[in-house]
Amino acid sequence: MVEIKTDASLDAMRVAGRVVADALAAARAAAAPGVRLCELDEVARTVLREAGATSPFLGYRPSFASTPFPAVICASVNDAIVHGIPDGYRLSDGDLVSIDCGAVVEGWAGDAAVSFCVGTARPEDVRLMDVTRRALEAGIAAAVPGARIGDISHAIGSVGRAAGYGIPEDFGGHGIGRRMHEDPPVPNDGRPGRGLVLRQGMALAIEPMLLAGGRNAYYVAEDGWTLRTSDGSRAAHFEHTVAITEDGPRVLTMP
Fold first, then answer.
1. Does 174 belong to an annotated binding site?
2. Residue ranges of the domains in the chain?
3. Residue closest to 234 by CA, chosen among 165, 138, 162
4. 154 assigned binding-site residue
5. According to the annotation, is 239 in a ligand binding site?
6. Phi, psi of 131 (to 5 degrees)
7. Superfamily of domain 7-251 in the CATH hierarchy
8. Terminal C-alpha separation, the chain
């Protein structure tokens, strides 16, 4: 069931969204050659703790996972698409890193992700990140009352496919509110004019993931969580929590 939020509920989600933005900014600022991914997780934990927030990631165990998730961020590097576990891997110059983070404050959740390069970025990675960011912006622009879920999906997919990138078919955005994952699912590709009608008060986590190799194929790594591209190509991931309002999309996870 899709929950329609009141203005007060969306304001509460904005509080959680600010915490997410702060945690992402802090993790990104700490990322440098030689820094371990687990250290970035500790940085994000500190931000959440000082804000009085809890993590919807820590201990999360969906049906596909063999173990609960052990961290407050997902840290996915290079060919890792999403759900990377922040372990002892040390960042290197030129790594492409995607950080996904959530926060819950007084019962309301926020969820967002950002991709960036450590040190000197390769031109092809800059393009991949730029297109993924533009795909997110296109999806957000389509999130208006009276439109449909398929309009968001089509907007994202059109940007990604026009650039020649792959789109993992089984993973995309979702509703969000009192829980991190709620109805409806928000695919990253689809046909316009199809799916659930968007209504004022809905909140969605919109999150394009694009694969540089142009293929949609991926596999789950041995840790049971990390999704990696099958051809070893790099991936980028951007996400915002967005409210549907009569005045247009309201991004709840902006800094």
1. yes
2. 7-251
3. 165
4. no
5. yes
6. -65, -40
7. Creatinase/methionine aminopeptidase superfamily (3.90.230.10)
8. 30
